Amino acid sequence: xxxxxxxxxxxxxxxxxxxLNTSLTVLKFVFAVFTGSLALxxxxxxxxxxxxxxxxxxxxxxxxxxxxxxxxxxxYKIENIASIVISxxxxxxxxxxxxxxxxxxxxxxxxxxxWAILVMVIAMITTLIYSRLxxxxxKELNSPVLKADAEHIxxxxxxxxxxxxxxxxTYLGYNLDKYAAxxxxxxxxxxxxxxxxxxxxxxxxxxLDKEELEKIKKIIYENPAVVDIKHIRGRVAGSFKFLDxxxxxxxxxxxxxxxxxxxxxxxxxxxxxxxxxxxxHYEPVRQKGFRVAFLLDENQQITDFKNAKKIVIADITEDGxxxxxxxxxxxxxxxxxxxxxxxINIDIVVASYHPEEFSVRxxxxxxxVMVWExxxxxxxxxxxxxxxxxxxxxxxxxxxxx
Length: 402
Fold this sequence. Notes:
Blueprint: H1 3-35, H2 38-64, H3 78-102, H4 113-141, H5 144-171, H6 177-203, H7 210-221, E1 226-237, E2 240-250, H8 254-271, E3 275-285, E4 290-296, E5 310-316, E6 322-324, E7 328-329, H9 334-341, E8 348-351, H10 358-366, E9 370-373, H11 379-401
Helix pairs in contact: 1-2, 1-4, 2-3, 2-5, 2-6, 3-5, 3-6, 4-5, 5-6, 9-10
């Protein structure tokens, strides 16, 4: 689902919530006055707080998607601010219900109880269906404000169940109305506290959860150019995530390194939902041993500087182990290939002949690159030739040191 489609879906659900809460508020308030039920009036207050909250949700979802030069990272946190405001509405609703239930001196007599029960059953079924559907949408869209809205609609359903039980008790002659109202207040307060904590954490730039960070690390390490991850920092704003990553990469040309970083960024955005931006800082690293570049033709055979179409780079450790990195496609041009080889921090270039141009040989010499001529045509044979020579050199060096 694209960013635009996500935005339209969020607005649709926020608008639906607004319509639902408006309808329930009016319905409950009218019948609360008609029946005189404190629990039903508490539910009307609850629904009114949800109505205001839904209005804030709809406005915040629209504002959060806008970007400007003054807010280059977007206004995504408007969603989290809105969810905190919503939590205060829930606290207020709980307070009003408790106050009315236990500190009011006015005696309430519930009339037409059967009508109150019918209204609450309708509200209960409606809120149950809508809250579950909106919660599913909130998870798919990764929207904290929709999740917050679904939470209080769910709290509305639970409180409706309690109110229905209280009204049935009242209908049977037991005075349960105010106790049902008090239980509703507890549901509302609990929901508000969870929403408040979640919104506050994001405003304080809480990190991504450990499971998601591990998934990000796994994706990064799948790229063979990555030697190590120095650190990953991630934060959430609204529905979106921002990543700050520092990597140690094998040495390549500047162009190739940019390609590798772009590839990592693209894969992260594809596999991790709702990433707004990825900032990757990278540093070159050299392991003990040396780096060899092999010039290959279109048939993957060792060739010279004039006919090479691919450069394959291999890192060889002190104990002779090999890591072959991704290849570079090049044009068969001696000067251009020499320029590339002098900039990618290699020790040896393996070719069938030395470069003919003096300037190319001189630039490679200045860069500390040794040209290794070989009569081997097969890549593996040429690689083994280098490794065997290197290991023989190390054995002789060890004997001399002894």
